[in-house]
Amino acid sequence: MNTKDLILEEARKVFERFGFNKTSMADIATAARKGRRTLYTYFTSKEEIFRAVIDTEVSKLGEILQQIIAQPLPPEDKFRLYILTRMNAVKTISTYYDALRQDFMNNLGMIEDLRQQYDELEASMIKTILDEGVEKNHFKIADTVVVARAIVFATKGFELPIYRGDTNYDHNKLIEPLISVLFHGISKEKN
Fold first, then answer.
1. What is the pTM of this model?
2. Which residues contact 47 (CB under 8 A, 6 or more apart)?
3. DSSP three-state, residue 173
4. What is the CATH number of domain 54-184?
5. Per-residue pLDDT tens for 41-79?
6. CA-CA-CA-CA torsion sign (169, 173, 179, 181)
7. Would you list the domain boundaries of the chain?
């Protein structure tokens, strides 16, 4: 493992344990068994390290989601698996970064800035599934770009209880009805 990756791995552990606000560059340097000067060779600040840690986590999730998109599944099944995998990953990351939960509201601006960077990537992945569904005549969508963005925003709403640490929240029970509404609508079919 190269020095930069080692720093990020150890920083991830420190952020997980102490949260963003209580972590210092000295804490990260100690955990990585490197001097602070070495950290500053690769990163200009704690915020930059935090962003790099999040980038790494999101990249891993992106790879998993790309694998789902590439599977030879019907678009409906691919979409369902994509959404469930994504939400389970958010829940896992949130539980994993339990210490960050305390910082979430204090650093909402920074976290939302990070999140906006990934919204377009996510919308692009969802659009790929929707385009395939339209092409195979499984979906009737006039503008897959708009629908993909709407789905990104809708799924973000499912994340807030996870970030707040709501232990009674089960996103799986809510996602299936959302998917059903997306696939079938809420209007009663006329005979």
1. 0.75
2. 110
3. helix
4. 1.10.357
5. 999 999 899 888 888 888 888 899 999 999 999 999 999
6. negative
7. 54-184
